[in-house]
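worker-03 picked up job from queue 'complexes'. Input manifest follows; two sequence lines, order preserved.
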Amino acid sequence: MKVVELIEVTKVYELPRGSIKALDNVTVSIEAGEFISVMGPSGSGKTTLLNIIGCLDTPTRGRVVIGGEDINGLDDNQLTRLRRDKIGFVFQQFNLIPTLTALENIEYPMILKGLNGYEKKAKELLLSVGIDLRLGENKPNELSGGEQQRVAIARALANEPDIILADEPTGNLDSKTSKDIMALLKDTNERGKTIIVVTHDPQVASYTSRTFRLVDGRVE
Amino acid sequence: MIFFEFAKRNLARHKFRSVLAVIGIVIGVLAITALGILGNSVRLSASEQLCMIGNELVVLPYGEETISDANFEKIEKVADAIPVRSSVDKVILNGESTPVMIYGMRSEDIPKLLEKEDGQFLKHGSLNCLVGSRLADEYELRVGERALIKSQKPRIVGILKERGIGFDINPDNAIIVSDKMFSSLYNSSGYNSVIVKVDNIEDVKEVREEIEDRLNKREEVVRVMELKMIVEGIKSLFRTISVFLLGIGAISLLVAGVSILNVMMMSTVERTKEIGVMRAIGTSKSGILRMFLFESLILGAIGGVIGAILGFGAGFLVDVLMLKEASYLFAPSSILYIFLGIAFGVGTSVISGLYPAWRASRLKPIEALRYE
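worker-03 finished. Artifact:
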């Protein structure tokens, strides 16, 4: 089953000094359960691709189908709901919400969705990414980088999304912690989650089963 | 409610800043509540002390010392008129000598203007007297006692009800005698004033003009005061004072509103990235909007309630110190200002929060995420 399908997608940014083609006629499809890495030099359109798959941005031309839903013509609320239910985000800077504890950060997407029993599920998720329940009461700034990224992965998994999107998930971590995080992602993939990682670290890409190389907005 | 929780925690994150914003609202609400209560108390106490009868005209002599009998007859032809003669004299009451206002009135006119507390009114041509309530209180006068005016010793047959400060006559600190008694005390001719009662308050102006026409034909001999106008004038003065006091309160609230706007704008800019994250992981625009509106609502509600409590306290202090009377504080029209203060505080705060909240909710997730 295809979870992501991009058909002839082009994204053009209109800037004062002219327009920039960030994605140029890109067609990719990703099957459920794949572990994909997206590589390429900066400015090659990696982030744009990730934003479009993540329903944070819409294409100028072309069709985008996420989890069986065509995102063309969806309004902001519908895109927001799609992000909440079908996509899990993992960021380079972890981006946990600073006013919430680690556990509450995991609960938050489930509260947004209106799920029952989110407290129990958040604890299970916290344990599954290898964090002690005691640490779960801490605010993000009281956790190490690696711990924060684990919590972020647990948060991304909260609403059982179709895809996990990770933008340079190890970019702010030392090499030892990076390996742990990639192992966790690999483990998550082996349990059936589709994961797309954007990176320029070949070490990271080596964990994945397939790699897209982007150059000047085209997939090679 | 998750967004209310967010709002609370975000305010707690910058305690000092939140406290400053609340202080602004507190001062504004305090000003509105305290000044509102003060204005209202002054108005209440004034209307309690002033005898405001709208349908009377008072005719006073102009140029001459008194209104002549002939002129009085002319007035009487226009409307029901009560001639009043008055003088200030030393009177001995309960053995103490004191200057007192003495009014001479026709005995049949007295019940038209005054009410009695105790005893009875004067009979026609009586040589007795009535005393005002304050005078009676001060000198512990009772019905049956005698006053000493010049060589006369009129018996006090009645004590009048308190009437308040009037623009026609002020009987509370006065002695009222019959016209016959007055004539025997003072051999003056004419009247010091004539009070005209107009049946219908709508006709007051007409009657006034007619009196002026008839009496002031050749030269001005009388001035006619319309009590209605005085009453209106005083009422409008109090309205002006109230509006002025509320204006001061409103300005302080405006300043508080600007400070909340500033705090909220700072907050939205600082939290741009966080808003981006929240939006990315599935928070709707309206969720962000609500979060920020709750923040300003909480600031306004806390400030409003504290301000109203302090305002009530300040109103109490001022009432007790200035008016020596705390009962006005609990009048419904005073209590209203407490709610008005809170409402204005919350309203100002929420309105100030609208724009920042709207701006925050409109942030594009990808741009907000990129913000450092």
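worker-03 released lock.
Chain A touches chain B at residues 51, 54, 56-57, 76-77, 80-81, 83-85, 89, 91, 95, 97-100, 108-109, 111-113, 155, 159 (CB under 8 Å).
Chain A has a mean pLDDT of 93.
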